[in-house]
Amino acid sequence: MSLNHEASLPLDAERLDQIIDKMVYAVEDSKTQIFEIGEQSREEHDQLVKELEVIKHQVSEVIDRYDTLERDARLARSHLAKVSSHFDTYQEADIRAAYERANSIQVELSIVQEMERQLKIRRNDTERRITKLKATVEKADKLVGQVSVVLNYLTGDLQKMGEMIESAKEKQAFGLKIIEAQEEERKRLSREIHDGPAQILARVLIGSDIVERVHRNQGPEASAKELLTYREMVRSALAEVRRIIYDLRPMTLDDLGLIPTLKKYLNQIGSQFEGLKVNFRCIGHEHRVSSNMEVALFRLCQEGVQNACKHAEASLIKVMVEFKEKSIVLLIKDNGKGFDPKQSHTSKFGLMGMKERVELLKGELTLNSDPKVGTSILINIPIIEEEEH
């Protein structure tokens, strides 16, 4: 059975262990092969380094030989010129001997020059091969190190693999829930924009033609009155757009900070749900923290309050923010119907999202819930400087 086929089947801890064993064997085999390639390349590299030294020595000898022959060739040519210019003084045998020597030296000089050229080609080729082999050895050593890291990971503690699988399934379901929530949010925004600002602006666009006709037929005073109506429509559309923008990201977070934004949001929640009372309290020295942290804390409070409003059927929600020296504590408590945290619950994915966000901030989330008492969520997040985020 191939790994690809096994990967298509539902996962369980025992079968996953079998897959990991096969992976470990394959990785160990690959590590051995990479190591052997590295050793072979290293041996060949060392051999070529020795060979290069011999070639360099030969090149040096050939260059010395060439210099000697070139000097002898100059002397031979000088002697030949002297003999040739004093033809009547030297015998024919002397002239022939001078010519043959000059020619012999020139031939040998050409041979030595060709040897030098061939040796330099070998030297350059050997140097290129050494460079490539050195790079191969370095890559092999690096790969062996990386494979060792993979092996250490694969052969580590697998006792909690079942829990990891269950956690992975939950995270997958959570991811799908996020996608579903995002699509629902997009649909909601699309409907709000279409039914609100888009409709108003369409009416204003049509109204501009009416104002123009009124201006032509009834004069500027009548058109000015008509224009007031559409001005109110534009003002209404602008207010609706601002509300939608605030829902996406409250601008007061950047301008005023966390506490004023929370106060405004919780006041709105209290007015939206009939029979619901929301109490807010801030303890400690209020101060600004990093933008990322303020956004995260606002979203955590928003998610916790929305869960209480939608699922708890609470009549009272208490929210407290405490500024400590090195952390910020957020408490969200309601007097709703509560639930058993161990059992599946409709707000499970909301709480999971909060937990994920808190873990990203290196904080802690404590959940307490009782069907007779209600639910409390305590979040403690360390204050981290902006550059550490």
UniProtKB/TrEMBL annotation:
CDD domains: HATPase_UhpB-NarQ-NarX-like (cd16917). Residues 116-143 form a coiled coil. PROSITE patterns: HIS_KIN (PS50109). SMART domains: HATPase_c. The keyword Cytoplasm applies. Its EC number is 2.7.13.3, 3.1.3.-. It catalyses: ATP + protein L-histidine = ADP + protein N-phospho-L-histidine. Keywords: ATP-binding, Coiled coil, Cytoplasm, Hydrolase, Kinase, Nucleotide-binding, Protein phosphatase, Transferase, Two-component regulatory system. One of its GO terms (molecular function) is kinase activity. This is Signal transduction histidine-protein kinase/phosphatase DegS. It comes from Terrilactibacillus laevilacticus.
